[in-house]
Design goal:
Order of helices and strands of chain A: HHEEHHHHHHHHHH
Distance between the termini of chain A: 59 Å
Helix content of chain A: over 70%
Structural class of chain A: mainly alpha
Shape of chain B: globular
Oligomer: heterodimer
Distance between the termini of chain B: 32 Å
Number of helices of chain B: 10
CATH superfamily of chain A: MetI-like
CATH architecture of chain A: Orthogonal Bundle
Largest sheet of chain A: 2 strands, antiparallel
Strand content of chain A: under 5%
CATH class of the domain at 4-94 and 166-250 in chain B: Alpha Beta
Helix content of chain B: 25-40%
Number of helices of chain A: 12
CATH class of chain A: Mainly Alpha
CATH superfamily of the domain at 4-94 and 166-250 in chain B: P-loop containing nucleotide triphosphate hydrolases
CATH architecture of the domain at 4-94 and 166-250 in chain B: 3-Layer(aba) Sandwich
Strand order of the largest sheet of chain B: 6-7-8-3-9-10
Number of strands of chain B: 10
Strand content of chain B: 25-35%
């Protein structure tokens, strides 16, 4: 009789803890959207999203420049960080002898423990002056490139950790089966282990991208924060990465302390856009995962 | 007398200081099925894995004596080309999480076959030899993981055949399968020996008696090192073993 009651109580307790996280997500989502409604209503959803000018003094609230800033810096971080992180994961899971992995893994994990403001400091003191050395007119060192590099290092432990776990969970029997067919270790890793871990690796990358989109303080410190559309400084389109920019997150953090009225609502709208962007990333990841699972039956 | 395909000469294997195989001398004839029987831990799987040097994946393994394939020392040969000549089928079916076609084409691709129609030929030939073609010919692009356990094991045999080995090692290939699938695998072994030399480890003495032409009985000595107690034609081993321990084992008095 008593056992049954404990069972019932435990069930309720667990249900409440599960529901509380759902409730919190819904509450935050609801609150953010509600606060941003005035901005969307008076400025217009489309003109806000596509507007390239953000001048709170003149009641101009276009967030396109920030969307571009967040998008480009995340892309840059992915281009630099994903190969690095995957290389790291493959090294740890498949190549490194035990004692080497025992040294490398904790230091990669340590990267995750560094506060993001310290990354920002490092970027300001080391990266920005170095990048300022690139001889391009208008290059201040602050900008998308510095921010991308900082962000790449920040997402590295997340991606490497999850990807390593995915690689390690591939059954050893696949590995042995491939070697027994005369494949080398590298051929086996490339053609059997990595494809078998594909869905886990993909979720690792997406987790990293989600983290990149949400990063705030380190970005504020190195990206330059000017509210203009990032544009190439020279004829080379890649020089766009030397341009200063602002991220969606940075926009909120920099201005919320003094914003009122429509301005405040526009910042919440920025948050809503960020929210949706991250949801889109997660959703497309899940779709990719499904496609990946179907892709095991390759053509 | 049959031609000798594999030969061990005073071959011993050590895990660190521990001697797991003790001075093994065996001559495995070509195009026959040779079975290794013996109680658990007698070293029969270790001996089998010696022929394609899979033991080298375990740190601290060391060998003495020699193992020869067609008269050449396998430890002097490049391990990749050795494993191409000596294929292996594992205890638990281990198809890759790829399509049936990609599983069979895996080995040939690794060894440089790129031509699609050539790969398709190899796949059909290998799957036919593994008695699986008729069951899967319309679903070559389906995942191998969707096949039954017995089909998966035959796929693994096809995968091994596809690289055109001379020898196929089978480590208890039917122990994870139901009786019907087991019979299929045994029939398959019989049809394969025309083209390949087969060495099989089995726990199942009826299976050894049913399928093999030669049998080696292994047993650990007082130092727990595996020794070959008796080796000869399966008929003779099972009807008139010369060693008392062999007789005890096959009549079920221990092990």
């Amino acid at each position: 009789m008593k056992k049954k009651r404990v069972e019932g109580v435990m069930k309720t307790v667990l249900l409440i803890s599960a529901l509380s996280s759902v409730t919190i997500v819904l509450l935050i989502g609801f609150f953010t959207v509600k606060e941003s409604l005035p901005a969307f209503r008076s400025i217009g959803c489309w003109s806000m999203l596509s507007g390239k000018v953000w001048r709170p003094g003149q009641e101009s609230y276009g967030i396109m420049a920030m969307i571009a800033g967040s998008g480009l810096v995340t892309l840059g971080a992915a281009v630099i960080g994903v190969p690095l992180a995957l290389g790291c994961a493959v090294f740890l899971a498949e190549v490194a002898p035990g004692w080497v992995a025992g040294l490398v893994r904790p230091s990669v994990e340590l990267l995750a423990g560094i506060p993001s403001v310290v990354y920002g400091l490092f970027g300001m003191v080391v990266l920005v002056p170095a990048i300022r050395g690139i001889p391009v007119p208008g290059n201040t060192g602050f900008g998308l490139l510095s921010a991308s590099i900082v962000l790449a290092v920040m997402i590295l432990p997340t991606i490497a950790g999850v990807a390593e776990t995915a690689l390690r969970s591939v059954p050893r029997s696949y590995y042995n089966g491939s070697l027994a067919l005369g494949a080398t270790r590298w051929e086996t890793v490339r053609r059997v282990t990595i494809p078998a871990a594909r869905s886990g690796i993909l979720s690792a990358v997406v987790l990293g991208l989600g983290r990149a989109l949400g990063e705030t303080i380190a970005m504020i410190m190195v990206i330059g924060n000017s509210v203009v559309m990032p544009e190439p400084l020279t004829d080379n389109p890649l020089s766009v990465f030397l341009s200063r920019a602002r991220t969606l997150t940075g926009n909120i953090a920099v201005e919320i302390s003094y914003a009122t009225g429509l301005h405040e609502s526009a910042l919440f709208a920025t948050g809503t856009v960020l929210f949706i962007l991250i949801m889109v990333v997660n959703f497309s990841a899940r779709t990719l995962l499904k496609a990946g699972a179907g892709g095991e039956v390759s053509r | 007398m049959d031609q000798i395909r594999l030969k061990t000469l005073d071959y011993s294997l050590f895990y660190g200081e521990f001697r797991a195989l003790n001075r093994i001398n065996l001559e495995i004839p070509s195009n026959r099925i040779t079975a290794f029987i013996g109680p658990s831990g007698c070293g029969k799987s270790t001996l089998l894995r010696s022929f394609n040097r899979m033991n080298e994946l375990i740190p601290g393994v060391r060998t003495e004596g020699s193992v020869q394939l067609d008269g050449g020392d396998i430890f002097r040969e490049d391990v990749v080309s050795l494993r191409k000549r000596v294929g292996m089928v594992f205890q638990k079916p281990n198809p890759f999480p790829k399509s049936i076609f990609d599983n069979v084409a895996y080995g040939p691709r690794i060894h440089g076959v790129r031509n699609r129609s050539r790969l398709a030929e190899i796949a059909e030939e290998s799957l036919s030899r593994a008695a699986l073609w008729d069951e899967v010919k319309d679903q070559l692009h389906k995942s191998a993981m969707a096949l039954s356990g017995g089909q998966q094991q035959r796929l693994c045999i096809a995968r091994a055949i596809a690289v055109k080995p001379e020898v196929i090692l089978m480590d208890e290939p039917a122990s994870a399968l139901d009786p019907v699938a087991t019979v299929k695998i045994e029939e398959l072994m019989n049809s394969l020996k025309k083209n390949y030399t087969i060495v099989i480890v089995t726990h199942n003495m009826q299976q050894a008696a049913r399928v093999s032409d030669f049998t080696a009985f292994l047993l650990t000595d007082e130092n727990r090192a595996g020794n070959v107690i008796e080796f000869g034609p399966t008929d003779r081993i099972f009807t008139s073993p010369t060693d008392r321990r062999t007789e005890d084992y096959i009549t079920g008095r221990f092990g």
